[in-house]
Amino acid sequence: MFKYLKYALAAVLALPLASAAEAQNYMLRPSYGSISLQAGFLPDPRTRTVRAGGDNYFQGGGGCPGGGWFANAPDYRMNYRAGGYALSIYVRAPGDTMLLVNDPSGNWFCNDDFQGLNPAVVFNNPRSGQYDIWVGTYNRSRVGNSTIFITEMGPFSR
């Protein structure tokens, strides 16, 4: 009994480490460019089409318990000046994609299957600063025509 409790405790203590994306490097130049936005931006949503997936396996954690495959460099970068709105980043794609975001405080957020196979990350009180965005895949395949949406209207509002 004590042996199983020890393993359970070790698993719980390891959770914060599992959410850090060690293979993703936010210091690299984003593959599909960047955008600067401030609260109340129009048109809303803003979009960017990318090719999801990569050669680096992210162990998972948080909203991506199974892990997935991402590029090393961010796919897209957003510099955001916050105001009184929530900020949502989501993906629509023809395959099973995952979303990984590094926020201005250096926190990592991951989501898989927010709506069907499409992921989303919602920041109810977003901070001003740099958001680095990766779109990955559940398996090692690449998914073209994956579109990142950035909106203050809520995920999948359009």
General description of the model:
The protein has 158 residues and is mainly beta. Helices cover 11% and strands 40% of the residues. The protein has one helix and eleven strands. The strands form three sheets. A five-stranded mixed sheet has the order 1-5-10-7-8, with no helix packed on it. A four-stranded antiparallel sheet has the order 2-11-6-9, with no helix packed on it. It has a two-stranded antiparallel sheet with strand order 3-4. Strand 7 and strand 8 form a beta hairpin. The chain is globular, with a radius of gyration of 16 Å. The termini are far apart. The N terminus is likely disordered.
Topology at a glance:
Layout: H1 2-18, E1 34-38, E2 46-52, E3 56-58, E4 68-70, E5 76-81, E6 87-92, E7 97-102, E8 108-112, E9 120-123, E10 129-137, E11 143-151
Parallel strand pairs: 1-5
Antiparallel strand pairs: 2-11, 3-4, 5-10, 6-9, 6-11, 7-8, 7-10
Provide tags for this entry:
mainly beta; four-stranded antiparallel beta sheet; 158 residues; globular; single chain; five-stranded mixed beta sheet; 40% strand
Task: Write down the secondary-structure element order.
Answer: HEEEEEEEEEEE
The radius of gyration over CA amounts to 16 Å
Low-pLDDT segments, ≥5 res: 1-20
* Helix-strand makeup class: mainly beta
The global form is globular
Sheet with the most strands: spatial strand order: 1-5-10-7-8
Report the total helices.
1
Main β-sheet description: 5 strands, mixed
Percent range for β-strand residues: 35-45%
Q: What is the number of strand segments?
A: 11
Query: How confident is the prediction overall: mean pLDDT?
Result: 85
